[in-house]
Write a structure and sequence with these properties.
Helix 7 runs parallel beside helix 9 and helix 17 packs across helix 19. It is built from 45 helices and 8 strands. It is mainly alpha-helical. The longest helix has 27 residues.
């Protein structure tokens, strides 16, 4: 029944190309604007478009993008609605400068970034105590006729009640219990404020502020400061928002409001808050609560904040404990930077006051306290670091270099105190510190090491030099001076903490010789007693800094001590992480392919370490990441024209990375590419040697593919490798690949795992079989096998395969088979493999061969028609319609409709597609138009007779 029509593939391809139209240069450009003018003179440019010239003054530009927006664009709309800028709205230069200073930029490290670090560093195991506010009903009842003065007196009595037994002291709290209680107080503050119990909220804040005068567990004080000031910040925000909401109809005022926007009610309320705070008897809570609402001074006067800052700075002088005082200064700097960062004079005065009282740290009262709490002076001094560092950061922010000079002079007057010197180096810009590196080294040498270790000073200096370069003439001297101190450190952690920082300085300014010396010294210090086991993060940091600066891996691996340094990473998880860092750097920085034996041996060792870490418990994401890194390395290896050496490398890699399937897949692709490179070099004419080499490549793939677990990976690689073998004239090997693929199809499971979800495999199998049939067109028959033995074998497998009940993929495959058989019946196939004779050349249009193709076609058509009959039920009529139209189109494209039986079959399929009203009318109309158009082509006149036999049926 089936007769394929003759196809002239070249002519069909040419007819599908777009029409060529000659265009003179300059007349037309697809991006050129089309100008339309009123003119009588027209010049023909390109078919379908005109360009005109005229002396007329009226012209318009048509822009397809503008027409969508009615001639406007969003930016133009915003510009049109914006308020016009008038000279009256311009600010003077002085105000502009001040506004700029009022804003703290992103280059300023906020307090929030230091909070978690302080809480994690300053901990304690000792028991803590806290006073909880119990509340009171006193003073709640009031008569309507009470005077204002009576109301004020009542509120003052409520505040006094805090000191008259309304508290409950909780003792023997752990650190976590203490933190939980503080969080409860913070929440209680918010709840009281929300329920309009403002006095209760103030009592809570006063109570919490009192805790900051307690240094009973002194090593916990920095963390206590962080927790308490969180409550103070919440209180300050609530008060400010409350007063701000009184000033405007909107909920809050703008930040740049003036006193004219503040009404009398808001001013009175603000004064009331300051009067309440002024009634607090104790100095520390009065200071902290007033500092918390510092921003509210903006509601009272323009210079109120500056005046308040000066007064609060002086108030701190009354705090006797130097630790409590320095944290009070830190909080004042914190709120000052948030409210008025331009008022640097008050901040500077705050710090200089601290310097004047610095000797209190070594006073008798402090020493007695430390003896009672069994705290040594070095530990005590570290408690000052967060506060001093913050104060200096606020002072040094965008400060001129002259301020650093002044700070250095003051440090010298205080005997080069190490604590202050360390904070100065941490606060000021790295460029300023770097230019004065030698001065700082001289000051460090003169420091007293009893309270604050010198190696920490050198560490701080090294952190600055990692960001900015010192004078070139001083670089070697700086390294020598620093390393003299560092290498003498006895404690391994102290040593590695400093060495880690100075490794980067060495890498930046010196050669691999100096870096090798540093690495050797680190190995010497960290190997005894396996000290490296406690310093893996620092050692990993050293590796990262070295590979970041030595991007040439030939130079990196020529550093003698680099690989011995890697041997210190004995813990498997850490070792794998370090290896991943090295491979990521190699893939990122290696620009050219390499065959350097030093690089290959080192990186093979690194990749082997990563591969051997894979076990049954390794997560799939981790396996995927390791495979990506190893594949990146494999792709960068090239031995040029030495293909045999390249294949040997792939063989070695296969034995080393056999547990990572993506790596094996990459190796198969690489070997196939190697075979094709060999073909390219030989221009398709293999010699005996290259033919043997290509067969070796094919054998590599054939042996490796069965070890893969993914069935679709195996199927696709069998197909791909068979195509490569065919291209290299390895016909028997190609047949072996294709036979293996055919025999593997029955093993395809019904569902496969895709990104953690089980999906039907039918669509993937359909895609594979379509590609497979396209390849089988050019595969020549084996002389000892039957005609089309591979096609027959594959059809038998498809017939026996169990497809899903609601799937039509089997029929879609049969339709593709008809396309394949139609192409096979042509005198010349549409594509060939160079130097491989396909069946069109082998059979030469033999009638027995063509009749065999026709018998196969009849069998396939019978299968399709049987399936269409099965779909004749109500619930499957739509599927029947779609498949009937698909089969009709296949016959239309590939069948010879001059054959009466085939012609009648096509008419029946057309009717079946429309029979139950599921056919798309537009599709059917377009199909008829195509048939009528084809009938005008040479040799297609019989379509004129077909078209009238294909009526369009209405849905009604």
């Amino acid at each position: 029944m089936w007769h394929s029509r003759f196809r002239n593939y070249d002519a069909e391809l040419e007819s599908c190309r777009p029409e060529r139209v000659a265009v003179e240069y300059g007349d037309y450009h697809p991006l050129k604007l089309i100008t339309v003018t009123d003119s009588k003179t027209k010049k023909l440019g390109r078919k379908g478009s005109t360009s005109s010239t005229s002396s007329s003054s009226s012209s318009s530009v048509a822009d397809p993008l503008s027409t969508v927006l009615d001639g406007t664009d969003p930016l133009s709309i915003f510009a049109a609605t914006a308020e016009p800028i008038t000279p009256a709205t311009h600010m003077d230069n002085g105000k502009k400068k001040r506004d700029k200073e009022d804003v703290v930029g992103s280059d300023f490290q906020p307090w929030s970034s230091k909070r978690s670090e302080i809480l994690a560093r300053y901990t304690t195991t000792e028991k803590l105590s806290i006073n909880l506010f119990m509340g009171s009903d006193k003073g709640k009842a009031s008569t309507p006729g009470s005077a204002v003065s009576e109301k004020v007196r009542t509120r003052l009595e409520e505040l006094d009640d805090l000191e008259e037994g309304s508290q409950k002291e909780l003792l023997n709290l752990t650190q976590q219990d203490y933190v939980n209680r503080i969080e409860e107080l913070n929440q209680s503050l918010k709840d009281s404020w929300a329920s309009d119990q403002k006095v209760k909220a103030l009592k809570i804040v006063i109570q919490c502020s009192k805790l900051l005068s307690d240094t009973a567990v002194i090593q916990f004080y920095p963390s206590k400061f962080v927790l308490i000031t969180d409550i103070l910040d919440t209180f300050g925000k609530l008060v400010y928002e409350r007063i701000s909401s009184m000033c405007a109809e909107r909920s809050t005022l703008a930040d740049n409001f003036t006193l004219e926007h503040v009404n009398d009610t808001a001013k009175e309320t603000c004064l009331n808050w300051f009067f309440k705070i002024a009634s607090i008897r104790e100095l520390v809570p009065r200071f902290y609560v007033e500092a918390a609402i510092l921003k509210c001074n903006k509601f009272l006067s323009t210079g109120g904040i500056a005046e308040c800052l000066r007064r609060l700075t002086s108030m701190i002088r009354g705090i006797g404990d130097p630790l409590v005082a320095v944290y009070a200064r830190a909080y004042l700097c914190r709120v000052g930077m948030a409210v008025a960062p331009h008022l640097k004079e008050s901040l500077n005065k705050n710090f200089f006051d601290f310097l004047l009282t610095f000797k209190q740290i070594h006073g008798d009262s402090v020493q007695n306290l430390l003896v009672v709490q069994c705290v040594e002076i070095p530990l005590y001094l570290t408690l000052y670091s967060p506060a001093i560092d913050w104060i200096l950061q606020c002072i040094a922010y965008r400060a001129p270099e002259a301020l650093l000079t002044e700070m250095m002079e003051r440090c010298k007057k205080l005997g080069n105190n190490a604590l202050l010197l360390n904070s100065v180096m941490s606060a000021f810009r790295a460029e300023f510190i770097a230019t004065r590196s030698m001065d700082f080294i001289a000051m460090i040498k003169e420091c007293d090491e009893s309270g604050f270790p010198k190696h920490l000073l050198f560490r701080s200096l090294g952190l600055n030099l990692a960001l900015a370069d010192p004078p070139e003439n001083d670089r070697l001297h700086i390294l020598n001076e620093a390393w003299k101190v560092i290498t003498k450190l006895k404690h391994p952690l102290d040593y590695i903490n400093c060495a880690e920082v100075w490794v980067e300085y060495t890498c930046r300014h010196f050669t691999k010789r100096e870096v090798n010396t540093i690495l050797a010294d680190v190995i010497k210090h960290m190997t005894p007693d396996r000290a490296f086991e406690d310093a893996y993060p620092q050692l990993k940091s050293v590796i990262e800094k070295v590979i970041a600066h030595f991007q040439d891996f030939a130079v990196l691996f020529s550093v003698e001590k680099f690989l011995p340094f890697l041997d210190m990473f004995q813990k498997e998880t850490v070792r794998v992480e370090v290896c991943k860092c090295i491979m990521e750097a190699f893939i990122r920085n290696q620009q050219e392919l390499t065959k350097d034996p030093v690089i290959l041996n080192a990186l093979l060792h690194v990749c082997k370490t990563m591969h051997d870490s894979v076990n049954a418990l390794t997560l799939e994401d981790e396996k995927r990441m390791l495979a990506i890194l190893i594949n990146g390395f494999i792709k960068m290896v090239s031995f040029g024209r030495d293909f045999e050496q390249q294949l040997s490398f792939y063989v070695e890699a296969r034995s080393m990375f056999c547990n990572l399937e993506p790596v094996l897949i990459q190796l198969i692709h690489s070997v196939n590419q190697l075979a094709m490179e060999t073909r390219k070099v030989m221009k398709g004419n293999h010699s005996r040697k290259t033919a043997a080499f290509v067969r070796a490549c094919v054998a590599f793939c054939f042996i490796t593919i069965p070890s893969l677990t993914s069935i679709f990976a195996r199927l696709n690689l069998y197909l791909h490798s068979g195509q490569v073998a065919l291209a290299n004239q390895c016909l028997s090997q190609a047949d072996a690949f294709f036979k293996a693929a055919v025999s593997l199809v029955p093993e395809v499971p019904k569902t496969i795992n895709i990104d953690g979800k089980m999906r039907s495999s039918d669509s993937f199998l359909l895609e594979f079989l379509s590609n497979f049939f396209s390849t089988l067109l050019i595969v020549p028959d084996h002389p000892e096998q039957g005609v089309l033995f591979l096609v027959r074998g594959l059809l038998n497998v498809i017939e026996d395969y169990t497809w899903e009940d609601n799937s039509d993929d089997k029929i879609r495959i049969y339709t593709n088979v008809l396309h394949l058989l139609s192409a096979m019946s042509q005198e010349s196939y549409p594509y060939h493999v160079d130097k491989v004779d396909s069946n069109d050349n082998l059979y030469g249009g033999d009638t027995k061969f063509l009749s065999e193709i026709n018998r196969l076609c009849e069998t396939v058509i019978g299968q399709v028609l049987d399936h269409l009959k099965v779909l004749g039920k109500d619930e499957t009529l739509k599927r029947q319609s779609l498949l009937a139209l698909l089969f009709f189109n296949s016959i239309l494209a590939h069948g010879d409709l001059r054959n009466n039986k085939l012609n009648q079959l096509s008419v029946n399929l057309w009717s079946l597609a429309q029979k139950h009203g599921f056919a798309d009318t537009k599709t059917m109309v377009r199909t008829l138009e195509y048939i009528k158009k084809q009938s005008k082509r040479p040799g297609m006149s019989h379509f004129n007779e077909l078209a009238p036999r294909l009526p369009l049926q209405s849905r009604t």
